[in-house]
Each structure stands twice: as structure tokens, then as C-alpha cells.
Amino acid sequence: MKIQIPNQINNVEDYTEGELMFMALMYMVCTRYTWDSRYNMNVGDLRRIVFNFKANNQAIFGNHMIRLRDLFEFAQTDAYNVLVAWKTIRPLSHFGKPVTGNNSKVNVGSQTVEIHDIGSIQIWSYLMGIWFSGNDIVSESENILEYTDNARITEGLEYNNFNVNVN
Predict the structure, then answer these.
(1) Could you give the CA distance from residue 47 to residue 139 in angstroms, rounded to a whole number?
(2) Domain that holds residue 108
(3) Can you give the pTM of this predicted structure?
(4) Cβ-count burial 85-101 (b if 16+ within 10 Å, e if not)
(5) Are 61 and 76 in contact (CB under 8 A)?
(6) Strand residue runs (E) in 2-150
(7) Domain total for the chain?
(8) DSSP state, residue 163
(9) Is residue 167 part of a domain?
(10) Chain segment 6-22, per-residue pLDDT in tens
(11) Is 155 a member of any domain?
(12) In a domain, 109, yes or no
């Protein structure tokens, strides 16, 4: 399955499929909304997308996040919420300088990468089903601690929901 990530990312072959899916999702979110914001994400969502770990284990930081920490700023505000923003990817002006403010909705160029693992394809398909369902995947909220548990996540991203019979 082909997905789009920012063209400013080098050495794509060094990343796992989960890391590529997370980059692709954040690329889509920032392209639709803005590159200047931090986005609150459920820790369980992050773990399921990037590592395909069970969502009920909240520990997300460690050596396994090193490559993503080079690209993203993460701030875990509590056991269930993490703020995420691109660290290095920004739209560039014609002069090669980062664009901010109202112009930050300018698109960043993309490159196509492929994911092959059936589990990754299932998770990406689920995410795209939510993305294209007509419901906003990003909602504006005054509440920085949006999530109080992972129940929503474990119900929606449980592996059994993605089982397909591949013969």
C-alpha cells in the first residue's frame, strides 16, 4: 500500500512501517490544518500506530522512539495524552526559509513510500476510514488533557477488528 510522507525526510528505508504510517498521518493532519500547531494524541493511538503494541501500556518513550524524536517534538502531559509537533518539517518559501503564521497551511512536498505488512495495512486502512468518513479527526478544544483512558482506542484498534483471511 502506498502512503505519502514529507519529501524533506531522508533515508526512508531506515524507518519502520509504523514510523512511516505515523509520519504519513501527521503529514495529512498538518497539510489539512497547520504546521504550526501541536496536536494532542491519545498515547494508545500512538503506540498502536507506531509499534502495533497494545494500547493499554502507556510507556512510549525510550530507545525505540529515537528516530521519531529526531523528527517530532513529543510532550507526554499525563498517562493518556501526548502533544506532538513536527520538529524539522515546515513549508518552505521560495527563498528556502520556513513559512509560519497564516501561510503555514502551504503544502509541504511529498514522497511516496510503501507499506507491506498486513498488520500495518490494516491499521492504515482503519485510520483512512476514520479520516474519510466525514468526521473531523482533529477537533479544537480548550481541554489540553483530552483523553482519560485508552478504552476508546483498545476497542477501535484491537487486532481482531483487522483480522482478514489471507489465503
Answers:
(1) 21
(2) 2-162
(3) 0.77
(4) bbeebbbeeeeeeebee
(5) yes
(6) 2-6, 39-42, 72-76, 81-86, 110-114
(7) 1
(8) -
(9) no
(10) 998 999 999 999 999 99
(11) yes
(12) yes
